[in-house]
Amino acid sequence: MASASRVRVGTLVPLAKDNAGSSNGSVSTIPIFEGSNVIGRNHLVVADKRISRKHLSLQTSADGSIEVVVEGPNPIIVRSKGQRRKVCAQEKAKIAHDDVLELIPGDYFMKYVDMADEHKSSVQMDSCSIKKGKRHSEEDSAAVKRNRQIMEDEALARTLQETFTEENTTVCGMTSGQKISQLDSAGSSGKNSEKMHSVGPLKDMLPLTFRLMRVQGLPSWTSTSSVTIQDVIQGEVLLAVLSNYMVDMDWLLSACPSLRKVPHALVLHGQDGASVELMKKLKPANWILHKPPLPISFGTHHSKAMLLVYPRGIRIVVHTANLIHVDWSYKSQGLWMQDFPWKDTKDLNRKNPFENDLVDYLSALKWPEFRVNLPEVGDVNINAAFFRKFDYSNSMVRLIGSVPGYHVGSNIRKWGHMKLRNVLEECMFDRQFCKSPLIYQFSSLGSLDEKWMSEFACSLSAGKSDDGSQLGIGKPLIVWPTVEDVRCSIEGYAAGSCIPSPQKNVEKVFLKKYWSRWKADHVGRCRAMPHIKTFTRYNGQNIAWFLLTSSNLSKAAWGALQKNNAQLMIRSYELGVLFLPQTLQSVPQFSCTEKNSSSRDGLALGKTINTKLVTLCWKGDEEKEPSTKTIRLPVPYQLPPQPYGTEDVPWSWDRRYTKKDVYGSVWPGHG
């Protein structure tokens, strides 16, 4: 029964451990309806595998009490009338108004409020707030000002976004004049809008194959052209290769039930211990798990990608989210996706740089080869070479990968920041990008020094201007959330657990000159903390190039030169996609899931088109440059970024923060 047609009888309100009157940002408020209710992991703001997908079931009774059944393996605590009772798996207990549940003993406190008493409770809380008002007046005033500024910024941004979308989001294959339906500002889109969204975001022209992921809890206008995991994994998938660091198998199969029907699947992951045992227990029988080898200590498999084989071709996805609920629901994330057809038999030996980079990277993963039978293809071995069977000639990006090891000789320029340097050195850019700034945006900061920062900047500054001179070293700027950004985010301090950088890394003196604000009003994501990782070169008007990647700013991810630059040491597997004006000169028309799509791009062969990369907020005049194709990339933060103010403090996750967040919690929330 849909909740919209059921009668609400009460609410489970999250509480902080130390104060029954303040809320806890770890769990969302949960409405309770007549009949059966299920409480589980989806109600958490942060991932915690101690909470089962179906942790509790609640059955309402005519007398107003509620029967609670523990469905998961872990016990809960029921606090009622001064008594504290432990309730184990499959046991039952009754709760009434003002009773408190501990979803895990000592953690995740939820108070049940009967619907009849909710108004009275709110009045009492208001009265309590008035008494405390004097003590908190300064803090509340600052919060009000900040919220008002956010509302004003988002209103302006919404107008900009809607205007831009109306002008630019024509759907490929639709008749002239048809547009993607926009969700209304109140968030009620209706069934027609939902149906339109299911096909729209993957086909419209904005911004080709780079998307932001949808964030729950934000105004509906922020979802324009964003994607969910269901948008990505769709259609008749014959073979799936899912590459990631963290994989919540329970959530993944619930979020994408169609994956259970995929006949062959390979999961490349970076987990170990109990997490692997849980994946083995929950995975479908035909799925293969593989953790790529790590020849150097302190490394991990961190790449986030999907290879989805269809009857008509392959969909390749490179993104920034772990396969867990919180990453696909509450974080600012990015995704690149493009479909490629099978090669014609006459073209089987034809290769291009994208294909070579892909196969080289897949070869390094060393998964156990297996054999499958694919319709119209027959029996094939699934190894790295299998992926040469697809035509990548229309690829719109270059792949930039990292593979752990001590790389020497020609392999130095095959991986990490030296691979990026190698690709950029082959490119020519407008002279306006000479010595233009470099923007680094990521979610985890390694232990760095000025020598390595110079080495890294040298790679990202590579390339020549159109007059033949070198572009020159650009000044780095680091986009990083402040403590206040995290405190006021949609997750509160809980968001900081996914920005895992310690004080000793963040507060190095030489980094102060680089800090820049996370400001994302134009896409409505100021309060959705970034897990996306991007690197770019920007001159104040245009973008020279843009990299979406799994790599944070660390030597482990990008590599560090050693032995007089004769060796590059990398610890982790990473994968990113590089957007260049040279590769974005055509719009891909081929789709694995649409039978009427073509594998050709529809442009006249040999025709030269100048391409310019800009942000969504670019206000130039395209009509003045009819020979130039302008492509707007949804860069999720303001360019140029604002430097930190005197009161701004960069977030580090091992400091204590006593100023309460939007849920009334402090950090850390224990101890």
Automatic annotation (TrEMBL):
InterPro entries for the chain: SMAD_FHA_dom_sf, Tdp1
UniProt-annotated binding residues for substrate: K304, K533
UniProt keyword Nucleotide-binding present: no
Protein origin, superkingdom: Eukaryota
GO cellular component, as recorded: nucleus
Similarity-based family: Belongs to the tyrosyl-DNA phosphodiesterase family.
UniProt protein name: Tyrosyl-DNA phosphodiesterase 1
Organism in which the protein naturally occurs: Urochloa decumbens
